[in-house]
Amino acid sequence: MKFRVLGCSGGIGGSLRTTSFVVDHDILIDAGTGVGELSLAELSRIDHIFITHSHMDHICSLPLLLDSVAGMRSQPVTVYATTATLEILKQHIFNWKIWPDFSEIYNGYQPVMRYCAISVGEVIDLQGRKITATPAIHTVPAVGYHLDSGQGSLVFSGDTHINDALWAVVNRIANLRYLIIETAFSDHERGLAVLSKHLCSSLVAGELAKFEGDAEVFITHLKPDEAELIMSEIKACAGGVNPQMLMNNQEFIF
What we know:
Blueprint: E1 2-7, E2 20-23, E3 27-29, H1 40-44, E4 48-50, H2 56-59, H3 62-69, E5 77-81, H4 83-92, E6 106-107, E7 110-111, E8 113-117, E9 123-126, E10 129-135, E11 143-148, E12 153-156, H5 164-170, E13 176-182, H6 190-196, H7 201-208, E14 216-220, H8 227-237, E15 244-245, E16 251-253
Parallel strand pairs: 3-4, 4-5, 5-8, 12-13, 13-14, 14-15
Antiparallel strand pairs: 1-2, 1-16, 2-3, 6-7, 9-10, 10-11, 11-12
């Protein structure tokens, strides 16, 4: 599997893009502003979109993507998320007030979009590429994702707070090569991290102390004005894990 970072920032400005990753040529993980990095032809080849949660920085490009490719496809785009997240999308985005419901708009005999509810621990097998929802703790229903090619694995935490259930999953993955975990705030905003159920520098260090593997670790979702500070704080307190900052256009093959 080839995993490319389209966006991994906690905000926008200049070249910064919010969370979205493309897997091979046909899968998206989240649909933040990073989706704008793809050409129209590339957008039209996206068959599967896995959403971690309903916050705007992770779904804002989803309605526009569907509108852009509606006339270019013969099969629906499948949007995967938990039942709770799908209900939020239906009520607050695809409600004919904010945006049309593309599950009700047909291109020929097929709808442009279809919803597929998933649960934590459920495996979606896409031609041997296995994608499993992992536990996340956030202010809205949320998950992360474990991607497994058979040869190697990558885990993306999604937006999360202190999360023992995630480590119970991660520490059982024998072929884990890459771990991407969020850290939205520096330590002087620890109170805001707790309130918003994100991680700050010292909290992510505490989480990484629970990690028993030797995969490469990358930090995502840093607030743009604090990115350098957050990474310096993490490196000072993360022990021997040595996490790196995730970057736009970074690629992982596993």
